[in-house]
Design a protein that fits this description.
This protein has about 325 residues and is an alpha/beta fold. It has 3 domains: about 5-70, no CATH class; about 80-255, Rossmann fold; about 260-330, Beta-grasp domain (Ubiquitin-like (UB roll), Roll), CATH 3.10.20. It has helices at about 5-20, 20-35, 45-70, 95-100, 145-150, 170-180, 215-230, 245-255, 285-290, 295-300; strands at about 80-85, 120-125, 125-135, 155-160, 185-190, 200-210, 235, 260-265, 275-280, 300-305, 310-315, 325-330. The strands form 2 sheets. Strands 1, 2, 3, 4, 5, 6 and 7 form a 7-stranded mixed β-sheet that branches. A 5-stranded mixed β-sheet has the order 9-8-12-10-11. A hairpin with a 2-residue loop joins strand 10 and strand 11 (about 310-315). Helix 1 packs antiparallel against helix 2 (about 20-35) and helix 2 (about 20-35) runs antiparallel to helix 3. The longest helix has 27 residues, at about 45-70. The chain is flat, with a radius of gyration of 29 Å. The mean pLDDT is about 90. The chain binds guanosine-5'-triphosphate and magnesium ion. Guanosine-5'-triphosphate binds near residues 95, 108, 112 and 214.
Length: about 325
C-alpha cells in the first residue's frame, strides 16, 4: 500500500537534517508523527519515527542523569571486606595504606595528591581486606561521586593528622563529620549496631590518629581522645614508623564483623590457607550456600571441628559457626 504522504510531511522532514540538538529533533519527530496519515501504508514509517524518538529520548535522559550526579567511580569489591580510608588533605591516608599493604602509592607533602579512589589489597592473617584510598575531604571541594564511595564500603577508617594545630585534630574531625552529614552519612563506632533510618547511611568507623611520631602529637592526641570519649575507637598510629599498625589491622578485621571458616572434604585435610569469609552469626547452611548453590539444596548435615564443638561433631544446617571452624559438608 503506498504511503501517500502529504507535502507538509516532506517540508517538516527537511528540518530534521538541520536540527542541532536532540531536543529539537524530538520536537520535529513529534510533529511528523502528528502529520503522518494513520493507515496501513504508513505503519513502517510511523514505527521508524517512534524508534528514532525513543533512542533520542533515552540518550538525553542518560545525559541529564550524569550531569546531575557526575560520573560515578564504582570500586568493585574484592576480598573479605572493603574499608574506605577517609581524611583531610595531607592526613597521611596514602602513606598509611602504603605501610599497611607494602604497595607504593603517590605520597607527597602538598594537599590533594590523591585525586581518584584506588583499591589496594591488605593481607591480614590468611585473608585479604580491600582498602580504598580516596581524595581528601575538605570544606572547599568534594567530588560529586565521593559520598557514594563511602556509602558502598563495608566500613571506614578516618585518618587524622596529629602533627598540625591549625586546624587542630578535633576541628578537622568535626569538619569531616559535618561535610558528610550534609550528604546523609553518619559515622558510628566500630562496634555499634547500625541504626536503621530511611535515607541515612550509618558507617562503622575507626579513627586512626596518624603521625604520632611528630612533636605536637602527644598533646593533640590527648585533646582528641578527650573529645571523642567512648564515642569512637581511636588508635594512635604512625604511617611513617609503622607504630600501632598491627593493632590497627586487628581492629579493622574486628570492625568487619566476619568469621573465617574452612571447608573440608571427607577423608582429607582442610586447606587452612584458604578460608571462606562470612558475616558473624552465619550458619552451616550459609556456608553451604557460599561454597556452591547446589550444596545448600542438597545439604543433609555437616561435621565440624572448632571451638564450640567436639572434633567431628555432627551438626545440623542451622548450627551457628565460629571463627576458624572447619566444616565438612555432607550432601
Ligand atoms: N611524620 C609523619 N609524616 C607522615 C606520616 N604519614 C604521612 N606523613 C607525611 O604526610 C604527608 C602527606 O601524606 P599523604 O599520604 O600523601 O597524605 P594524604 O592524606 O594521602 O593526602 P591527599 O592525597 O592530598 O589527601 C607526606 O609528606 C607524608 O610523608 C606519619 O606517620 N608521620
Ligand atoms: Mg593521598
Amino acid at each position: 500500500m503506498p504511503a501517500n504522504l502529504p507535502p507538509q510531511y516532506f517540508e517538516t522532514e527537511k528540518k530534521l537534517k538541520t536540527a542541532a540538538t536532540a531536543e529539537e529533533k524530538i520536537a520535529i519527530l513529534e510533529e511528523l508523527l502528528a502529520i503522518i496519515p494513520k493507515h496501513k501504508g504508513t505503519e513502517k514509517i510511523q514505527a521508524m519515527l517512534k524508534t528514532k524518538m525513543s533512542k533520542l529520548k533515552s540518550a538525553t535522559q542518560k545525559k541529564t542523569a550524569t550531569a546531575k550526579h557526575g560520573p560515578s567511580r564504582k570500586i568493585r569489591k574484592s576480598g573479605a571486606g572493603q574499608v574506605v580510608v577517609v581524611g583531610a588533605p595531607n592526613a597521611g591516608k596514602s602513606m598509611l595504606i602504603q605501610s599497611l599493604t607494602g604497595i607504593n602509592l603517590q605520597v607527597s607533602n602538598y594537599p590533594f595528591t590523591t585525586l581518584e579512589p584506588l583499591p589496594v589489597m591488605m593481607k591480614f592473617k590468611n585473608i585479604q581486606i580491600q582498602l580504598v584510598d580516596t581524595p581528601p575531604v575538605s570544606p572547599d571541594y568534594m567530588e560529586t561521586w565521593y559520598p557514594d564511595i563511602i556509602r558502598v564500603a563495608d566500613a571506614s577508617l578516618i585518618v587524622i593528622d596529629l602533627s598540625v594545630t591549625q586546624p587542630n585534630p578535633v576541628e578537622t574531625l568535626q569538619s569531616i563529620f559535618d561535610i558528610l552529614k550534609a550528604k546523609r552519612i553518619e559515622f558510628i563506632r566500630d562496634d555499634q549496631e547500625r541504626p536503621s533510618e530511611i535515607g541515612w547511611c550509618y558507617k562503622k568507623t575507626l579513627i586512626g590518629a596518624n603521625k604520632n611520631d611528630s612533636p605536637l602529637a602527644a598533646e593533640n592526641l590527648d585533646a582528641l581522645k578527650k573529645n571523642l570519649g567512648s564515642n569512637y575507637k581511636c588508635l594512635s598510629i604512625s604511617a611513617q614508623t609503622s607504630d600501632g599498625l598491627e593493632d590497627l589491622k586487628n581492629s579493622i578485621y574486628s570492625m568487619l564483623n566476619i568469621i573465617r571458616v574452612y571447608s573440608k572434604i571427607p577423608g582429607k585435610k582442610a586447606d587452612l590457607n584458604d578460608p571462606f569469609t562470612l558475616p558473624v552469626g552465619s550458619t552451616v547452611m550459609d556456608m553451604a550456600r557460599t561454597v556452591h548453590k547446589d550444596f545448600s539444596l542438597k545439604l543433609k548435615f555437616a561435621r565440624i571441628w572448632g571451638k564450640n564443638a567436639y572434633d567431628g561433631q555432627r551438626v545440623n544446617r542451622n548450627h551457628v559457626l565460629e571463627d576458624e571452624d572447619i566444616i565438612e559438608l555432607h550432601i
